[in-house]
Amino acid sequence: MTVQPVSVFGPLDQAIIDAINNVSMPAFARVWGIRAELTLDRPAGAWALWMMREADVPGDLAYHVYRSGVPIAQIFVDTIARSGDSLCQCVDHELKEMLVDPTAATILPWPGGSIVKEVCDPVSGDGVDLGGGMTGASFVYPSWFNQGSAGPWDARGLCTRAGEIRPGGYVEQQVNGQWQLSAIRDDSGKTSWRVSQHGRLAYRASNR
Fold this sequence. Notes:
Elements: E1 2-9, H1 14-32, E2 34-39, E3 47-52, E4 62-67, E5 70-76, H2 77-83, H3 87-100, E6 107-110, E7 113-116, E8 127-131, E9 134-137, E10 170-175, E11 178-184, E12 203-206
Parallel strand pairs: 1-2, 1-3, 3-5, 11-12
Antiparallel strand pairs: 4-5, 6-7, 7-10, 8-9, 10-11
């Protein structure tokens, strides 16, 4: 198993750090073979987690990028608070996706086109209980990306087939040569915050 140190820049509650390091990441590593270790230190080779106040892209809660050879997750604390989303879940989401795709640029073939390899987006509406009142991010298994594969396909066992987008989830995919966000509405009829984000790609949404 690979342990990747990730340095925290900016304030992040120690309870969130502990929940992610001690509960969320071990479960993730059992499936993907890699885990993040959040630290307030600056060890050599560490990736970066930037805790920022306001989104630099209107409406965005968090994202991960690759700059100058370093994977970086950016978390927008005030934007998350106004949205009513879980800060712990947003941090956990970006860490897991950054671990699987450090360059944020992996594209996989998909029926009808291509798909961006993001492991939390398809099940982003399904949080996981980390204890102590903390909610982490669910994630899909490698089998999710293999059409026709046997399950399980996600951390909570809620997907019923490979490639399924859960309520509240979404994927960025290429369809007929055009990139778009495909999203599934949750039980209240809403889609993920990301599909309504200003300046994002066009999207199609369905109820299931």
